Fold these 4 entries.
Entry 1:
Amino acid sequence: MTGLQRDMTLTSTDALYGRAEDADYWHILIRYPLPGAASGTTSYVLYLNVPDPGRAERVAYPIGPRGPARGFFYQARGTARGRELIASGFVWLRRRAGDRWLVTLSAEGKLGTRLKGLAVLSRSDLAVRDYIEQRHAGDVADLRETATSRPP
């Protein structure tokens, strides 16, 4: 990327997680509007598929083709729209009150995009499932098909 899209700070009030079809995993979905806005039409999406942390208070998962966590960053608009798989990095989850979790991410995409940040996730199984089915079913299916290993 060049110009204004080379370095972006994205803010969102739309950070959700939901149980995946295989109950051992979660879908994490963070939708971002254009840079500089905290809400509005989704322009970028961060999707992560992570193991369910169970009763743990804190967990860390490596992200990548051989790690237990996988994901992608998606640009919904513009000339560079499309999906970039996350090639490496880590995602940390820390339990908050109730069904809320703090997620921290430090990762790099296959095309060199660096992703760093944190969000407080709220649980919404149906909203996450519906959004994925409507907009990213193929992207999520590709992650599953290209998975070379999952923890036993």
Entry 2:
Amino acid sequence: MKTNEIRIIIDASCRDVFEFTLEPKNTPQWIDDVEEETISTQQIALGTIYSNSFGNMEVTDYERDKFFELTNKKTGVICSYSYRPINDTQTELTYFEYVQDGSELPGEMKHSYFEKLKELFTKK
């Protein structure tokens, strides 16, 4: 099975990193290939659909400030974000993606996106 895992330490609290990455209007600020992202619900929860130029991803697992998982039901791609506090002002963010059937990923998330995310918090 082909997987992609990215780990990065960000100088911000878990809550701040979680809230920023979960918010669809922030996605274009750190993922260059996304011009706009929307969600299907007012409040993000299990079943919420994120939509952008890559397709639709459903929230299939969610634990506030700790973890969320998105699944593309059409392609079988699953990606997850895990947040681990290092201390009150640092968070380790782990991104992991794979295809349910074990096939090759149609495209991988780039490490440079996470470096850009880290820079956004450095500038705050």
Entry 3:
Amino acid sequence: MLLDRALVANGHESVVLGLGGSRVAGDLEMVRDRAGYVAQVQRAVELADSVDVIHVHRREIFDLGAADWIRARLPRVKIVATLHGAPDRVRAYYADHRVAGHFVFVSRAQARGLPELSGTVVRNAIAVGDVPFGKRAICPAFVSFVGRIGDEKGVAEAIDVAAALGLPLKIGGVVQDQDQSYFETMIRPRLMQGVVDLVGPVDDDAKYALLGASTALMLLPKYEDPCPLVVIEALAAGTPVLGLARGGLPELVTDGVTGLLAADVDALVSKASRLSGMDRQACRRTAEARFDVQRMLGEYLRVYRGTSAPPSASRT
């Protein structure tokens, strides 16, 4: 919905296909919950002749053959698909559809991992102005983890790092059904008030408050996370990031300036003494300059118009 609001605010028309109750700035075309994504694809086909671009974030328009149908009958209509997830997962979904649309990678790392797909890099963004800036972390200091509480997110490792640093850890996030066993065996036994606190699910306001008060956000994924949005949110709040240099994280965080990155947990702990010298203003300025929605809008408009640069040309 962020892109929808930005398009309308800048004088463009936007039609969103979604469930009733969705809050959009443009026109809302409602589909029934039970009909799901099939109904959205059907409605996209019905509307195709009256739009210039169909922008999707899921694969159903390709799986159901709608992209090929539109491409054959309405070649002026551009189908743009933003790819979400690690390269291996994206490959499983889109490898058979490599010529049916224009693909958007959310990081150069994701693009490098998918050489068989052509497209453009447009990184995730937020409305930076909506995030309160935490000029200073609260005292006593603590570090935070925000996200799904599962093994591949490295939550147990975040507890280890916090312990090695002698800092309390606050965990904000949800435990999904597939992660329940991991939580019960690896996380719950280590919860201790004032040492490892489970905040639980956080809405945007609570998340921004948690990030803004943190000395640092920790991000230790065990997979190639292409462009974790929580990193951008942390930087907007003025909070540096402690993380593993994998996936798209090195493209978001400048080591030694807006956070500290390392190849593994031990190396990260060894350099964490530099955390106290991080400039929270620099974090905020980076978010404003590189990750605000207005920049994302400009890049997507170039994609829509066919004037965007290839992934290798994106250096910031």
Entry 4:
Amino acid sequence: MKNLKYISIVFILILSACESGPTNNSRLWNGQWTAPQSIGANSYLVEGYDTQDALNGARAQCQSMGKEFVMRQLTPHTSRTRATVTFSCN
């Protein structure tokens, strides 16, 4: 019975770690991106688990501000690095 309890707890923790959207964790999972960081002059930086996640995070930031997403620079993800997108919201 104890094993079932521990297995359930681990399963719940895994599911909660795999939620899509912004995260402040240093480890990103599929569907996640970092919170946008202001880099000055109405420009922001977002890192994503993969390229589409970074773009989703950038678009979500601009939508929350009621503005349109304008990409400045995109660095696609590789097997060793996260995707990064630099953007502004106009």
